[in-house]
Amino acid sequence: MTDIRTIRTKEKLRNSLERLLKEKEYEKISITNITDDSSINRVTFYTHYQGKDELLKDLIDNFANKCCASVHDSLEENKQIITSPEEFFSAYILSLVDYCIKNDSLVKNLSKAKDGMMLAYLGKAISNAIYPLTVKNAETRIKHAYTFSSTFFIAGYIEVVLNWLNDPIMPKDLFYYEIKDFTAKVVKSHLVYRYDD
After folding, report:
1. Does residue 10 lie within any of the structural domains?
2. What angle do CA 104, 108, 110 make, to 5 degrees?
3. Overall average pLDDT of the 68-74 stretch
């Protein structure tokens, strides 16, 4: 069982890094910035993390879990109308897109971290976190495909959201419509996710 102080300390450090990432790029954030912002000393920081990259991964895993909780809540609210794999994944992807848009500065700075490698890590974290939802919705005859494919799939959506955030060439409702339409086509193609007819 994890000590409650450890949980709180890690949460404070994650919250500090998240706050800082909303203001500036990851490479410009120092451990001193994080410890000053969180009012936690360096010794305590190194008791929990080997460095800021490990903290970043913990933050991303936490972000993925929050994102998936948001997706889960959205699916629970709409479960009476979700009857097909396309509807399931549209609800799932639109919730993901909405969560990323609401946390745009964080997602933008995460995408630049470590020369963009954290975007792939974010895709993997979300894919892993979303897997239990896929299993839970097995009655919709959806089968999770390969981890690499689903990671690539999620990272691609996040990249599309980032492109739209940087240059919103269409209104948000039209952007959502395009995402939903594309998702239905991808699910029907069986490229990333499979389902039984």
Report:
1. no
2. 115
3. 75
**Which among 180, 183, 190 is positioned nearest to 145, based on CA atoms?**
190
What's the domain count of the chain? 1
Determine whether 185 is exposed, middle or buried from the number of CB atoms within 10 Å of its CB (0-12, 13-18, 19+). Answer: exposed
Asked whether the predicted pLDDT for residue 173 surpasses 60, the reply is yes
**Which of 68, 57, 75 lies closest to 17, judged by CA?**
57
Confidence of residue 49 (pLDDT cuts 50, 70, 90): very high
Which CATH number belongs to the domain containing residue 142 in this structure? 1.10.357
Contact 48, 11 (CB under 8 A): no
Q: Up-side HSE of residue 185: CA atoms within 13 Å toward CB? A: 6
Name the residue range of residue 138's domain. Answer: 57-195
pTM score > 0.85 for this model?
no
Per-residue model confidence (pLDDT) at position 85: 60
